[in-house]
Every structure is written in C-alpha cells, then in structure tokens.
Amino acid sequence: xxxxxxxxxxxxxxxxxxxxxxxxxxxxxxxxxxxxxxxxxxxxxxxxxxxxxxxxxxxxxxxxxxxxxxxxxxxxxxxxxxxxxxxxxxxxxxxxxxxxxxxxxxxxxxxxxxxxxxxxxxxxxxxxxxxxxxxxxxxxxxxxxxxxxxxxxxxxxxxxxxxxxxxxxxxxxxxxxxxxxxxxxxxxxxxxxxxxxxxxxxxxxxxxxxxxxxxxxxxxxxxxxxxxxxxxxxxxxxxxxxxxxxxxxxxxxxxxxxxxxxxxxxxxxxxxxxxxxxxxxxxxxxxxxxxxxxxxxxx
Length: 299
Prior knowledge:
This protein has helices at residues 80-83, 129-138, 149-153, 175-192, 196-199, 211-219, 224-228, 264-272, and strands at 3-8, 17-19, 28-32, 39-42, 47-54, 59-66, 74-78, 89-96, 101-104, 110-111, 115-121, 155-162, 165-169, 202-204, 207-208, 233-241, 247-254, 275-276, 278-280, 285-286, 288-298. The protein is α+β, with helices and mostly antiparallel strands. The chain has two domains: 13-193, no CATH class; 202-298, TolA/TonB C-terminal domain, CATH 3.30.2420. The strands form five sheets. The protein has a six-stranded mixed β-sheet. The protein has a six-stranded antiparallel β-sheet with strand order 4-5-6-7-11-10. Helix 6 runs antiparallel to helix 8 (264-272). The chain is globular and about 55 Å long.
C-alpha cells in the first residue's frame, strides 16, 4: 500500500480557481436564509466566523477563516443542499460586487453534523504571478496584509452553482465580518508572541532552504491510525522563526476532520528544516513565521 502527502508550502493560501466568462443565470436557485447570527471563534491558531442557514431540519453552514494575516480568507460551505450540486467543479460568486469563478471541489471532505463540504479561498479568481509582481512594485510601504472592509461592503450573498442549479447563502453585508476578522487576527498575532507593529515592518517573509528534503521526510510517514481507517485530512502549519532563522515552535491546525492524525510533520520542521529569517524594510533580520498547507491523501 502507498500513501502520498501533497504539500502547498507558501505564505498565502491560493484558491485553485479560474475566472469565468459571462454565464446564464441558474434556472433552479435555492436561497438559504440565516438561522443564526455570525459567531466569531477566537481559537488558538486561527480566526473563524460562521453562520448557519436553511432550516432547523436541514442546516447548512458557511464560514470564513484566517490562519495568518492576509488580504484573503479561506471559506468552507457544507450541507445537504451543497452536496446536491454535483462534483468535481463548482462556480462560486461573492455578489453582487464580484464575478463568479470556478473552483475545484474536494469531495473527500466531511464536516461533522453537516456532511458534504468543500472549501476554497478568496472572493475572486487569483491574479497571475506577473500581476502580483507589478502590484508589489507599485506599493513598497511597510504594512501587514489585512482584509479590505470595502471589499466586504460589496458582498451581500455567496452563491455556489453548477450547470443550472444554484444555492445562495443570504449572508447580509460582509463589511463588519471583515472588520471582525481583522481585529481577531491582531489578537492572534499577539497570542503567538508576534508584535503586530513589528510584523508590519516585514518586507520579506522567512523562506525554507531545504523544502524538498523536509517534504520527503514527511511523506515517508502516514499517521498509522488514520491510514488503517482510510482517512485523509487537510492541515495548515505555522513555524515560528527567530531573527537567526532558527525554528522555535510549530503548530498544525486541522482544516478538516482529523481525529487520528498526529503532529509528526511539526517535528520534522523543528528538527530538520533550515530557514532564512524574515527581513524588515530596514534590511535587518526580524522574528516572524513561515506557514503553508499540508494535505494527507491516500493513493
């Protein structure tokens, strides 16, 4: 038997998405009204805000989450109505302010109490690497990436569709949701021992020098209990890096159900990974963190 671990080692989480040309409106659209208020979860290693929709008998959930400061968030939708839309690919739209984009679906994800789930990130299709470089050259001012509340102000609902069927979550305006996540993230940085004011001076985040070697070590060991049960999982990892480039702490945060997975990947980072430290706008090394996504998959 063979197990594979797919890793995305990056500072920012990017959606596997592409922009869509103009499309016809779905013929069969189910609109889900809220059944709860927004609930903000100040966890140890992430900020998550979520809300339930539908009815007491048939609940769906939508949440937005950040595991580090960023101008984007990851989202997850789960419920019977979402599961009925089909598989492989789905169109996602944060409206009315933004166009739809196509996102891959991970059909192996399950959310306890809600069932079938899928996730992605951002509210628009990711820009190209050339566009990112051009944007960075235009604005070199020291700043910590945060969500833009004006973007949230342009969103009143989130819709998932495939073919002529759609499920729309009537979220209400998201400006205050964006502001709440920004506030939570500042508190989270402080909890990690990172001064938000110092982090705003970082011009270059830490980078790993022996990525392939560490990845190979992680790939050799699939957690035994999870393997025996045929379980798969998604994680986000965060490694704290001091001003010398030394990893000082590591945290794995489960993005899916992961009861039978361990923290052995963190041990590999702490014992074997080699890093270049973060550099501030004065050209000096400074403490920061390195993070990314880790996916456990069975062949």
